[in-house]
Amino acid sequence: MSGELLINVTPSETRVALIENGTLQEVHIERIAKKGIVGNIYLGKVIRVLPGMQAAFVDINLDKAAFLHASDINSRLMTSQEQDNNDNEVPDIRTLVHEGQYITVQVVKDPLGTKGARLTTDLTIASRYLVMMPNAKHAGVSQRIEDEKERDRLKKIVIPYCSDDGGFIVRTAAEGAGDNEVAHDAEFLKRVWNKVQERKKRKQTNMPLFQDLYLACRIIRDFVGTGLERIRVDSRLTFDELIEFTDEFVPEIKPIIEYYPGERPVFDLFDVENEIQRALQRKVELKSGGYLIIDQTEAMTTIDINTGAFVGHRNLEETIFNTNIEATQAIARQLRLRNLGGIIIVDFIDMNTNEHKKRVLHSLDVAMAKDNVKYSISNFSALGLVEMTRKRTRESLEHILCDECPICDGRGNLKTVETVCFEILREIVRVNRAYDADKFIVYASTQVSDTLNNDEMHHLAELEVFIGKQIKVQTDSVYNQEQFDVVMM
Question: C-alpha 289: how far from its chain's center?
């Protein structure tokens, strides 16, 4: 595999494209305006203790003081006697903190409106496969990893890294990960925590002791050991930050990072911009002439395969089989590119032989194996459908880049002009029966009003005769095709 990362940076957003064998496989987007402070660790100063609220206000150098409740203070900060006395209740806040005290805290909820950030002293630092807990000493494994052998294997990897400085929890994403990858994450988190400790000793209060990495650094951290050949960055400032970051934490990546000063946008090198636009469309063309239809809903994603213009060279069964095989590659790529997760239902073209079905499932499994995200694939159902799941890791590309259509409310279609015209005629009859009016004025979109005044003019005239009142139609360019108002005069 030939892998390359393209990093495009502007003042408002950072975008990262993963290219494999010359083709876009993944897109990651982070917008500055939507980046919160949850997860940041600060050396804060207690500025006020409120016994009645069992809470304290802590200055962490934000506009508003942050809020720390007694129940969010880790028990390791208490004396052994206090722990014994308060096993079943929240201890008095005055026994835990006092005004003027410096305390290490982590943000668990962003500031909202007039409220400051919510804090905890139970610190955690996450990486791709692990979560480090500086206030613990043990090793744990996510309960979602059910295979006992896999749990034991992962636990054995991280136990040697547990110490008084902290313990680890193995995340679900680590299932199936290599020993070296998990060990590398443990080493990385150890180095990060050492840096936090150094900053704490210097009493660094003007900025966070730790903040979750920006997208560019986070991507580099997560792709260590995946066989990348080159990382191109089109921002000199970001390039310098990445060099500093890799020097400190992942020096093995530094030689492949390069600054891209070209006049041609870095995303144009592999047609990334056009690929992103195509990834927002329902229809995905296959090289053979067939195509996929991908529909993303709140409950699940459905994928329908069609032969389209592909007629094949032998018989219909071979044509269907070859289209389905080609579709498996496209499906795996589109799931990664669009970052679709949850339940996915695939409607392959019906095949008559069990051998063809087995080969299609095998092809889909091989194609999905390139994905770093956990997935599962079921057999064909009685209805000829394949149900699969893919772990949700972040928002889908569509949800990041698009809003729900305000006209159709996310349905994906509009009522026809004729349908709206008939709705208007029925509404006039309804209002006429309910209220006493001399005449009616209809406000509607350009398309609807033009149709009422032309193609449907005879129906409008018949209605005027039926109710014995004048009906006037006026155009309002602000209205969309489904909007209208019937006004009594």
Answer: 31
Flag whether 133 is in a domain.
Answer: no
DSSP one-letter code for 99:
T
Number of other residues whose CB lies within 10 A of the CB of residue 443:
19
The C-alpha atoms of residue 116 and residue 337 are separated, in whole angstroms, by 37
Q: List the structure tokens of 401.
A: 């880049």
Q: Are strands 301-306 and 342-347 parallel, antiparallel or unpaired?
A: parallel
Let me know whether 444 and 422 are in one domain. yes
Chain position carrying tokens 């004025």: 441
What are the per-10-residue average pLDDT scores of the chain (489 residues)? Answer: 88 93 93 81 95 94 92 64 53 92 92 85 89 91 90 94 92 83 88 91 89 85 78 96 85 91 92 94 92 91 85 74 95 96 94 93 94 90 93 84 81 88 94 91 95 92 93 93 93
CATH of the domain at 315: 3.40.630
- What is the domain range of residue 270? 1-37+213-278
Single pTM value for the model: 0.69
Pairwise CA distance, residues 476 & 480, whole Å: 9
The amino acid at residue 122 is D
